[in-house]
Specification:
With about 120 residues, the chain is mainly beta. It has a single domain (about 5-115), classed as RlpA-like domain (Barwin-like endoglucanases, Beta Barrel). About 15% of the residues lie in helices and about 35% in strands. The protein has a six-stranded mixed barrel with strand order 1-5-2-4-3-6. A hairpin with a 5-residue loop joins strand 3 and strand 4. It comes from Aestuariibaculum sediminum. This is 3D domain-containing protein.
């Protein structure tokens, strides 16, 4: 992450349950390439979906997220079903094997809240 991006945010750590998903109909809905916010998904983009409670804690649309064990910065571009709590879902394109290998983990993520 560039130093300029680092300076634009106040960074927070939070423990979450992290799973992974793919843009295939069997895992989402009839439009698996469109997020809940209306963004288009394509393999290679770094996107996470968040639960409503995390959204309310500051993981809003376009929030940058660093995930231990994965390279780069992901951005909140999708929402999860209301039945889940304190959970993120990491977008892994159409690589179902990678998503299954990730499985379900309890991890600490770091997310940025814009400085005003």
């Amino acid at each position: 992450m560039s130093h300029d991006v680092q300076k634009k945010y106040l960074w927070h750590n939070i423990k979450v349950t992290a799973t992974a998903y793919n843009s295939i109909k069997a895992q989402t809905n009839a439009h698996p390439q469109i997020t809940a916010f209306g963004d288009s998904l394509k393999p290679g983009v770094k996107v996470v979906a968040v639960t409503q409670d995390l959204y309310e804690k500051g993981l809003k649309y376009n929030t940058p997220v660093k995930i231990n064990g994965l390279q780069g910065v992901f951005y909140v571009k999708d929402r999860m079903a209301s039945r889940w709590k304190n959970k993120i879902d990491i977008y892994m394109g159409v690589d179902v094997k990678a998503a299954k290998n990730w499985g379900k983990r309890h991890i600490t993520i770091t997310y940025g809240v814009p400085l005003e």
